[in-house]
Design goal:
There is one protein chain. With 379 residues, this protein is α+β, with helices and mostly antiparallel strands. It is built from 13 helices and ten strands. Helix 2 (48-79) runs antiparallel to helix 3 and helix 3 (105-133) packs antiparallel against helix 5 (166-179). The structure holds zinc ion. Zinc ion binds next to helix 2.
């Protein structure tokens, strides 16, 4: 999952740490409810300043626990040679952007279980701290108690067996091990995930007016939001599994588009726009001289040039040059091409045979390819 609009906090172990703007909402909610509701009702005789200090410190330690949970997933991914790009805190907790899925069921199981195991361990540590400090320092004991409790909830919540929750990933890895079929296991686990999400939404809707078991309308609303978020994530993973299944077995040469015209490097951007884009509607170009590829060009590159400058700018000045392009080969399987695109954050790869470009694979052309096949009745 990708989240836009986030602040970069810096890199640790090569992993970018980020704060999404929605995190500030949850940080304030947690801090205020600790400082104004929970601590004052359980410990009525602390001074005001202490409520706020302990509220802020406890809240920060809670989010540090969430980061530790994501870091646990990330480190197991690293051990299995799966690069991790970033860890982002956002309104529903944390998310690690792990560049690809595990290739073996065991690796996936360990990677998924590492997060909840870490939360359980943190919960245990704060539980011990609470036991030792109980009669000694009330504020720190109170903080330790709440952190033990909330990390336990975090572990339990994540172990619910609906994909994309950690428990759903554990469930998928077990199915995968039994059936040997990764995509079918993903489809089953994501369908269970959607079921879980609808249960969340339904219980939220029941809790809002009735507030049973001391739960508030706000808890109900929160459950509805989490359910909605999980449903979206599960559906997206389901669709991804569907079209990955549909692309399975195809090679690059079978799905590439060969209609990206070749243009010479020294024509002006203006001529390219007039003659190739307006006249024929092409969106991608291979910049080549005498059949030798020098770069590729998409509308994205062209937009960087203002209209006045299009007359004086040559195509070669704005193309993505060959040394920044990753290429693929005609018989490479298309799913591994997609995996490479994900890992290096690119949207298109030229297909090269004997030093010549014979076509281009772009994400949107893959979608067109599948669409055409299904319209013609192919599965
Ligand atoms: Zn997790």
């Amino acid at each position: 999952m990708k989240l836009g609009s986030a602040f970069n906090l810096g890199k640790v172990f090569g992993i970018q740490f980020r704060l999404h703007y929605t995190w500030f909402i949850i940080f304030i909610l947690v801090t205020v409810s600790l400082s104004r509701l929970m601590f004052p009702s359980d410990y009525p005789d602390w001074p005001q300043l202490l409520y706020w200090t302990m509220g802020i410190v406890t809240s920060l330690l809670f989010f540090a626990s969430v980061v530790a949970h994501e870091l646990a997933h990330s480190l197991v991914a690293r051990i299995n040679d799966i690069p991790v790009k970033s860890i982002t805190l956002f309104i529903f907790g944390g998310v690690a952007q792990i560049t690809r899925e595990a290739k073996k069921a065991n690796a996936e199981l360990l990677m998924a279980a590492a997060g909840p195991a870490c939360s359980l361990a943190i919960s245990g540590l704060f539980g011990l701290l609470w036991l030792f400090l109980q009669g000694i320092t009330e504020p720190i004991a109170a903080m330790a108690f709440w952190l033990a409790y909330v990390n336990l909830i975090l572990a339990a919540f994540n172990l619910i067996p609906g994909f994309p929750l950690d428990g759903g990933r554990v469930f998928r890895s077990i199915l995968w091990r039994i059936t040997g079929n990764y995509r079918r296991s993903t489809r089953i686990a994501t369908q269970v995930g959607r079921g879980v999400a609808y249960l969340f939404i339904l219980s939220g809707i029941i809790i809002i007016p009735l507030h049973p078991f001391g739960l508030s309308w706000f808890d109900g609303l929160w459950l509805v939001f989490i359910g909605w978020f999980l449903e979206n994530a599960a559906s997206a993973s389901y669709r991804q599994a569907q079209w990955q299944g549909a692309l399975q077995g195809f090679t690059a040469s079978q799905v590439m588009t060969s209609d990206c015209p070749v243009v010479p490097p020294n024509i002006t951007v203006n001529r390219l726009v007039q003659e190739y884009i307006f006249a024929s509607g092409h969106h991608c170009f291979l910049v080549a001289e005498e059949g030798k590829l020098e770069g590729i060009l998409t509308l994205h590159n062209i937009k960087s040039v203002s209209q006045q400058n299009q007359e004086v700018t040559q195509v070669k000045e704005i193309m993505t040059p060959i040394n920044k392009i990753k290429v693929t080969y005609p018989n490479q399987d298309v799913l591994s091409v997609l995996g490479q695109m994900d890992e290096s954050d690119i949207n298109q790869m030229p297909v090269v045979s004997e030093g010549r470009v014979i076509g281009l694979i772009a994400r949107d052309s893959l979608i067109r390819f599948l669409h055409t096949r299904s319209q013609l009745g192919y599965r």
